[in-house]
Model the fold of this input.
Amino acid sequence: MSWLGDFDDEDELYDESDVRVRPNPKANRPRTKRRPAHDDAVIGRVLGVDRGRYRVLLDEGDEGEHEITASRARELRKTPIVTGDRARVVGDTSGDEGTLGRIVGIEERTSLLRRSADDTDVVERVIVANADQMLIVVAAADPPPRPRLVDRYLVAALDAGIRPLMVVTKTDLADPSEFLAHFAGIDDLRVFLSAPGKWPIAEIGDALVGSSTVFVGHSGVGKSTLVNALVPDADRATGHVNEVTGRGRHTSSSTESLRFRSDAGSGWVIDTPGVRSFGLGHVDPDNILRAYPDLDAVAGDCPRGCTHLPDAPDCALNEAVAAGSLPSDRVQSLQMLLETFASRDDPWDR
Done:
């Protein structure tokens, strides 16, 4: 007798109709990429970021202007949200203690200032959004000025569509004329000179009215001191320069937007941490020459496809240096940047 003898047929043996299957609502739920429209979202200015929490200013300029704390919506986890962003916020936007709003979107940016770890790294770090000016702070001495770092700031500003300004501090310690001669060809670069107790606050303040200005500079140049002079309640930490290394100590540890007010009007000061390097790996190489308008004009006489490097045949820049009509150190600064980009893999082909 077969062991199947207790069953009328084989189908009865494999009948599983009475097996109970535990439901899985999560697995059975239809997947969708649709997100809520958040028509009730309000728009605010991101003032700063601290450990995943965002300080956002709502009702800017109105009687009800107030700050709130907000988190980032899950769908924005891969979207950088930075100081200066115009954020769309939902949830509790009262700003009361213990409340938390939620950022669900970012408005289109008018500018984006970025830097990379070095010139060969195309992974960018977003510094600030929607700035229209960059104030480069440089010390005439202690620490000594670094013209090639300033060149990098200027290239980054041009790439972002931001207007550059410059403040030279500590002019009581050294004459900045030789340093400033490096930038004599940039006609629209406005420069302010300052010394301890002789800050041109009124003149700098007039340039800040109606704008969002990002402050950048090497550690120890007096950037935080200048910010505190312009925004008395900023309370930004200040440091000193190490006598052995000649380097400044990092004082500003985060990027923060501060409201500037004067009799002439108001604006925004965006203070950033001091940096000793400013990588341009993210920059379009075509923008490098444009950051040197005086050299760009001369380069118009170069043959098509000229690399403008020291060994470039019939290069108008090299010929002008040989003739003494262009300063060699300025052309060399441009060529050092161009050589860096020429030696790396082209990120735009990746």
